Amino acid sequence: MAERKIPSGQVLWGLDGSQEIFADYGIGGQPAGAIVSADGSLVSTWRGARNPDQIREILDTLLAAA
What's the pLDDT tens digit per position in 12-45? Predict the structure, then answer.
């Protein structure tokens, strides 16, 4: 789904001002975040603001489980 919105696959983050991507993945509003794998699978979501260290912790946890 997100690949249709950001077709290059090179964007590591983006703002979803229209909330189309959030709607595609069932995220109910902003602030919120999602981590989507290279194959388009939803890996993780969260509601509320996160600072860089919190996001890094989420990514580290996901990488350790891989």
Answer: 666 777 878 778 877 777 777 878 777 777 888 8
Range(s) of the domain holding residue 38:
2-65
Number of domains in the chain: 1
In this predicted structure, what is the pLDDT of residue 11? 54
What confidence score (pLDDT) does residue 23 get?
A: 82
58 and 44 Cβ atoms separated by less than 8 Å: yes
Q: Cα–Cα distance between 2 and 4 in angstroms, integer? A: 5
Ordered DSSP codes for 1-66: -HHHHSTTS--S----TT-HHHHHTT--SSSEEEEE-TTS-EEEEEES---HHHHHHHHHHHHHH-
